[in-house]
Structures are given as C-alpha cells and as structure tokens.
Amino acid sequence: MTPQVLVVGAGPVGMTMAAELARYGVPVRIVDKAAQRTDKSKALVIWSRTLELFDRAGCSGTFVAAGHKVTAANIVAGQKAIGHVDISVVDSPYPFALMLPQSETERLLEEHLARLGVRVERQVEVASFAKQDHGVTTVFRHADGREETLETDWLIGCDGAHSTVRHGLGLSFLGDTLQSDWMLADVHLSGYPFPESEIATYWHEDGVLVVFPISPGRARVIADIGQSTGALPPQPTLEQTQQLIDRRGPGGMVVSDPIWLTAFRINERKVGDYRSGHVFVVGDAAHVHSPAGGQGMNTGMQDAFNLAWKLALVCRKTCSEKLLDSYSVERSAVGEQVLKAAGRLTAVAIMRNHTAQIVRNVLGHALFGLGPVRRAMANQMAEVSIGYDHSPLNGPAAHGMTGPEPGERVVPVAGQVPAGSGNVPRFALFAEFGSGVTELIKEFAELLDPDLRPPLHTGGMWLVRPDGYVACVARSGDTKAIADYLGALGRGAVICRE
C-alpha cells in the first residue's frame, strides 16, 4: 500500500507518531538513518499523562509492567528537607512516574508498531525533500548507496535536535546553549537514604545532585560540574561520580558497576511554527530544553498524539486541512511553557550566590509546606495540568456549568473506554441518553463514537476530542450546540467560542 505519510526518525516520538497513524488506518512509512535502536537509557521517565494517552491504544499496561514506579520527589539542602512532592495524589489511573530506560521504551514501541503491521526501515537517510502543492517528494539514501524517491501526502520530522527535516525547511531554532557542563551516570547504587520509589534532589553550595531510582539497586545520577570551557564537556569517571556524590549528597551512598557515563550541555531552543505546508516537525525537531523535570520525551510524544488524530481525520477526508492549523498553535504554546518551566528549575538548582541560596532554601521550604503548591507541582510534573486554553478548536461552553471547560483535560475513569480508542479517531460524547442524542450520533457517525458515556456533571453535555480534551460544553439536551460544532469542524469552518 502506498504510504500517505512519511515519518522520519524512529526514536520514541517517531514510533509513537507512526503507531498512532497506523492505529487509525493511515498508511505510513517510518525510516531512520541509525542501524539499530538505542542501547542507552537516555530519556528515562514516562509521566502520567503520556500513559493515559497510550491507554487509548491499549499498550500502557505493557510499559507499566516493564518499568519502575516512582511516587514521590524530595528536595534536600544540607541536612534539611526542603520539600516532599507526593505524585500518588495525582488524579489519574497512573499516579506515578514510570522509570523506563529509553532502550526499553523503544523496544516496546517497535513491537507495538509491528503488531500494527508497520516495520521500521533502518539505515535509510533523507537526502533531500521538496514540498509540492499537495504533498512532498522525498529522496532517500540507503546503506548500499542506492537512492529512492517517494511521493507522499505528508512528511513528519521526528528526527531529533539535529533534524534534517527542520534544516530542510529552513526553520530557525531559536534559543541558547547554557554555558555549564553536566554529567550523567547510570550506575548501581547502595546506601540510598530514601525509598527506591522516590527521587532525591540535593541543593548544594557547589551545585545540584539528582538521583533517579531506575530499578532496585540501580539509579541515574545527574549533576552540574562547572562552567563550560572546552569545545566538549569532559567525560566523567566512576571515581569522579563517587567524589561528587560524597561532596553533595548526605553521605553513605556508594556507586559501582557503571552502565552508562556521559556528559552534556543544556540547549534551550524552539522553532516558531511546527508546520510548513504538508511538512511538520515534532518532538526534539521542534523544541529542546533542560532535562529538569524529565519532560522532553513526554512533550514530544504528546506532540505526536496531538497531531496524529487530526492528520488521520484529514487523511480519511472526514475533515479539511484547516484542522491541522491547530497543531502548531496548541503544541507550540505547550513547548514554550515546558521550556520556561524547565529553565527556571535549572536556574534555581544551580544558583551560586550564597545569599541567594539561603533565600532559595527558606522560600522553598515555606512554599513546599503548602498543600496546594505541592499538588500543583505534582500535577505539573505528571503533565496532567497541560491544556489548550487558547486553542482554535475550543467551542462554546454553556454558562454556569460545573465541570471541565473547553481545552481542559478530562480525567480518565477506570473501567471506561478512553476517548480516542479504537481504529477510528472519533470524538466522545458525555451525555444522558435521549432521542436527540441518538440522532446526533447517527448524523455524525464518522466523527462521533457510537458509545455514549455518562455526563461529567449533572445537567450537561461534553464533547471530548480523541486526545481527551474538552471540545465544547452544552446544557443537557442542547444537541444543536454539539451538532453546530461538529458541522463546522467537518466543513473546515472557523469554530467560535461564545
């Protein structure tokens, strides 16, 4: 079958993109210039919201079974506890951070893709591409030097921070490289003073030390190691890692048997627009930022979830291409928020001024003593607070209604089929049964899931997008408001929120 969509890059984001499109019946081809999947742990955390979105494809359980649950995060300065954030309070079927090395995430995603009938083509590099009025022409270079030309309707660049697709579009990757060096050590660790279900961040006068438990007896250690001086940061040794832990940690922790030692510098960059005609950039091809908070891979995967259902509706000719304009608007705003939040966390952690450190510690202790602050931090970490308040897809909301507003996430209910499940990208209707509702579902059979769900609050109707965010809200029985929204969406008309 001739592919409608070409996905370039087969990391976690690219495979998520290809899998979602394939699940929705869109012919897709995915290529990567690397010879094999990564064997490194790299991106380590899968957050609650990402697991909720994977639930629509029925594969969250596979990830959870392979990973290690973390339910809290601690901040310590010297011998004083600054704060404790309980992730288990997050209102989600997955109230935890799932520690899963990227090598395992990629393995599970590739198996998921294979079940959908899609094979990752490796050692296939994009030599060039050209945008056409109604598609894209791409030239590949295979490992044996052979060149191949492919015509597709759409091209999606999920090819990382050094994206060939982004360069080919001439998109500016605006931002900076922070002038500090960092080390990362995946090691075996003994003497950890917290439960292995908790993260620890140590604020020290020299900088920061963060310990992420990966599995029993194994952890990731990240720390800043000073101002950048050379062209590349110096690679750490196990001995240097131990010295740094002894200096900044509480004492008693011992590292051994390193699995991966590396150094890096933090880039904070982002493109202005995630779309150019029939070409999109997704994940690190569109935005890179500090690893503080572990949001990078998850943000990229959620870019993919956002784009996939929209592109599938366009490929199926259910909606016009105008629907795709919302992708960059929605995800660029999220990317900007993540970039700023991660940058702030990094700046707070590595401040050097002694007086500023004292103020930080006092204020931090006071703020983390407030329950609402701890809950807000947990929700931000878990990414369940992400929403699309200013989305062009937000429809009208009946005044005085209790419940989520357009653009807000609908909390998944255990035992209820998530919106966007199955092999067709349909909206879900949360409403009381009635003759008007039955007729509405029949009229918009291509856009509305035939399975009605209970209303989110008495007296209302909620139309929910295939990615689980509210599209519009009406009073019970006001099927015209829902019909007007779906009709406008199908025609490609502008949706106005009243």
Summary keywords:
single chain, 498 residues, FAD/NAD(P)-binding domain, Alpha-Beta Plaits, six-stranded mixed β-sheet, 31% helix
Provide an overview of this structure.
- The chain is of the alpha+beta class and 498 residues long.
- The protein has three domains: 5-44 and 101-173 and 271-348, FAD/NAD(P)-binding domain (3-Layer(bba) Sandwich), CATH 3.50.50.60; 175-267, 2-Layer Sandwich (Alpha-Beta Plaits); 387-498, 3-Layer(aba) Sandwich (Glutaredoxin).
- 31% of the residues lie in helices and 28% in strands.
- It is built from twelve helices and 23 strands.
- The strands form five sheets. It has an eight-stranded mixed beta sheet with strand order 6-5-14-15-16-13-17-20.
- A hairpin with a 2-residue loop joins β14 (198-204) and β15.
- α1 (12-23) runs parallel beside α4, α1 (12-23) packs parallel to α7 (296-315) and α7 runs antiparallel to α8 (325-350).
- The longest helix has 26 residues, at 325-350.
- The protein is globular.
- The chain starts with a strand and ends in a 7-residue tail after the last helix.
- The relative contact order is 0.13.
- The mean pLDDT is 95.
